[in-house]
């Protein structure tokens, strides 16, 4: 795909920016999206505090299944291209809704995880943090004896305050906002590009197809993100 010089010029002239990423950037790595007919949730109840209280072993088992799938995945060209794109800016960050750690594996340094990280864990009672745990049985906290759970945001839970505050700072102070592989339907992330544009930022969507926010953005590039982002990266050299 040939990238329009207008788009390239906007990015080259900016010093501060961020990328909002969703499941679509990791799909080429073999990680299925969570919604839709082939999504991870297809035959499962949504993860929530309620489901963990009612059947903690089953929820832990599903997370282990998810971890195993994600351990096999590797960053794809889109992840690596985004790492290169960050070098075009003085200040650039990735705000991701993904929990797969692939941005970090590709070399991105400033990654804000809105929904947590599948490889981190925490006590469900006292909140003590733990690293990766590989176990078929639910481990217990060595501080309070509570059950340990994945350190991810479940349905009905709020985004960690630090991540939300940092994201809002970027939205208010950016010149460029890239929206990559996200449906534009999950809040509060879906509002970030719109707020950035209200604050004067140039907004560019890179997605497989149109989304509910497409018509509110400045420009869009549709197609395979693992092909478009490397091409965009090349134009910035």
Indicate the mean pLDDT: 92
Within CATH, the superfamily of the largest domain carries the name: TPP-binding domain
Write the H/E string, N to C: HEHHHEHEEEEHEHEEH
What percentage of residues falls in helices of 4 or more residues?
Answer: 25-40%
Number of helical elements? 8
Spans with pLDDT under 50 lasting ≥5 residues? none
What is the C-level CATH assignment of the largest domain? Alpha Beta
Question: Which fold name is given in CATH as the topology of the largest domain?
Answer: Rossmann fold
Work out the radius of gyration. Answer: 18 Å
Inertia-based shape: elongated
CA-CA gap between termini? 17 Å
Helix/strand/pairing category: alpha/beta
How would you explain this protein's 3D organization?
Helix 4 runs parallel beside helix 8 and helix 6 runs parallel beside helix 7. The longest helix is centred in the first third of the chain and has 17 residues. The chain has a six-stranded parallel beta sheet, with helices on both faces. Strands 5-4-6 form a three-stranded antiparallel beta sheet. The protein is of the alpha/beta class and 237 residues long. It is built from eight helices and nine strands. The protein folds into two domains: 151 residues, TPP-binding domain (Rossmann fold, 3-Layer(aba) Sandwich); 75 residues, SIR2/SIRT2 'Small Domain', CATH 3.30.1600.10. Helix content is 32%, strand content 19%. Strand 4 and strand 5 form a beta hairpin.
